[in-house]
Amino acid sequence: MRLGRLAPAAGGRGPAGQGAPAADRFGAAGPARPGRRRRAVRREVRRADARPRRRRRLLRRGPLRRRRRHPRRVHVPVRRAERQVRAEYPRLRAEALAILVHGARDPRETAAFAEGCVRAADEGLAGIDFLYTPYDTEADWTPMYRLAERFAEAGLGITAHAGEVSTANIAAAAAMPGLTRIGHGVHAAADPELMRLLADRGVTLECALTCNAYFGVLPEVDGHPLTKLVEAGVPVTLATDNPVQLGTTIEREYALAAGLGLGPERLADLTRNAIRAAFTSDERKAAMLAELAEAERTRLSGGRGGPATR
What we know:
Layout: E1 2-3, H1 22-28, H2 36-50, H3 52-60, H4 75-86, E2 96-101, H5 107-120, E3 125-131, H6 142-153, E4 157-162, H7 170-174, E5 179-184, H8 192-201, E6 204-207, H9 209-214, H10 226-231, E7 236-238, H11 243-246, H12 250-259, H13 264-277, H14 282-300
Parallel strand pairs: 1-2, 2-3, 3-4, 4-5, 5-6, 6-7
Helix pairs in contact: 13-14
């Protein structure tokens, strides 16, 4: 669950997002086109910059507003929503993230955002997701390093979008204080040095296969470098990115990964990576790892009458 977002998500409307099956919704969006993701990210930033009043309103909303607030204001709605969804999907766990879109353009707003996030760290906010621009060329991340250091000192997890449309900004993002995850980062597969950097620092990549194909930033899913990253020792997880817009589910992402050649053990490793990299409590991590270990024991013992598989 993400709160405090400073820019709307890019995406279409119409029949493709209105309850059609996943495959139909994915196909209805049309063929992937190179550069679509770049334009989408730039459009998000332009919209955010063009609407300062709306940004200030969003900035003060939810976890970022201090006055007359209950000390568990972030925690309470997140847990309530989590309980509602778990009624149908009992294995779901959720935490709240705030997204900072190019925070260096208005120092006053950025300072207010940072202050609000630090306060919200005691009220249930779990992490910060940085979306910095320029997105497809190298940027100066120095202002973000100072913010990240402050967030990390407050106990917030740090992730950043980078390496989705090119190798740009992967190394810079990986150097952020407290950063443990990068959103996408798949173009690191084109550079052995970048893969070694990520593996050595234990930076987890959040890979969204359907998203990468949808926006045309990589070839079709069959050509995705997921297995190359795994074999290089880079911690990788699977993600849906925006499941409503993309018409996908986490089950579908795992099925796509299996189609790339990852067997049950490797797929379980991806889940294990996700748990270890999660911005959540040690108690929750331990419980989820125990649940995964039990599921693995059941599979290896041929649970429910089936043969053991590896």
